[in-house]
Amino acid sequence: MASELMAIENEPQPINAGLPRKPRILLAASGSVAAMKFANLCRTFAEWAEIKAVATKASLHFIDKASLPNGLVLYTDEDEWSSWKQIGDSVLHIELRRWADIMVIAPLSANTLAKISMGLCDNLLTCIVRAWDYKKGLFVAPAMDTLMWTNSFMEKHLTDVDDLGIVLIPPDTERSVCGERGKGAMAEPSDIDTAIRVFLEPPSSDSGSSNGMEEQS
């Protein structure tokens, strides 16, 4: 992991040939059964973007590592600690934040949502969120049981993350793995992909500005 961390530090600057580089998307999964779709999500984004991935310990119960795109490194909490040895060494959650143009947490579990709402940062994923530069996009796609989604805590937690500038990709209504039908299922990877593509679309020509990735370092 040390060599991979150095690769983040030494990422080349955007090309200057008048063409935008690919967007850098940091994909993250927290501990929901919907993390079974995380490999599919990564493959979808890998078709058009540079991606790196982060997974919480709980999400690893559901992620099929063999189905992840070839060459993709899946960062975990252990990497956060093993990559730092002494003062002056790079800190993984800071380097990943610097590298990314956008972060997408999908699935976002009820537990991780509550942590973000309260400002907790006790693993790699939540440390990245706590250190995030909110001039850059951060999207979340919740996934949880319907009664978790309709719990009275939810309104407060969603208000808190909205105040931070985090963008919600709403859950779907369907039958969950628990056998209950209702709202709470994570949006499909294709829908998450579409939401990010729309966000990255350059503004209309009459706006006088550009949203091209070549403007970011």
Automatic annotation (TrEMBL):
What GO molecular function annotation could you give as one example from this UniProt entry? FMN binding
Question: Would the keyword Transcription be found if you checked this record's keyword annotation?
Answer: no
The Swiss-Prot or TrEMBL record describes its family as follows: Belongs to the HFCD (homooligomeric flavin containing Cys decarboxylase) superfamily.
Q: Report the pathway entry.
A: Cofactor biosynthesis; coenzyme A biosynthesis; CoA from (R)-pantothenate: step 3/5
PANTHER family referenced in this protein's UniProt entry, alphabetically: HOMO-OLIGOMERIC FLAVIN CONTAINING CYS DECARBOXYLASE FAMILY, PHOSPHOPANTOTHENOYLCYSTEINE DECARBOXYLASE-LIKE
- What organism does the UniProt record list as the source? Cannabis sativa (Hemp)
Reaction catalysed by this enzyme: N-[(R)-4-phosphopantothenoyl]-L-cysteine + H(+) = (R)-4'-phosphopantetheine + CO2
The UniProt entry's GO biological process terms, in alphabetical order, are:
coenzyme A biosynthetic process; positive regulation of response to salt stress
Keyword terms of this UniProt record: Coenzyme A biosynthesis, Decarboxylase, Flavoprotein, FMN, Growth regulation, Lyase, Stress response
Task: Name the cofactor(s).
Answer: FMN
The record ties this protein, via InterPro entries, to: Flavin_trans-like (IPR036551), Flavoprotein (IPR003382)
Top-rank EC class of the record's enzyme: lyase
Q: Where are the membrane-spanning stretches?
A: none
Q: Which GO terms describe its cellular component?
A: phosphopantothenoylcysteine decarboxylase complex; plasma membrane
Q: Name one Pfam family in it.
A: Flavoprotein
Protein name as it appears in the record: phosphopantothenoylcysteine decarboxylase
- EC number(s) in its UniProt entry? 4.1.1.36
Stretches assigned to the Flavoprotein domain? 24-192
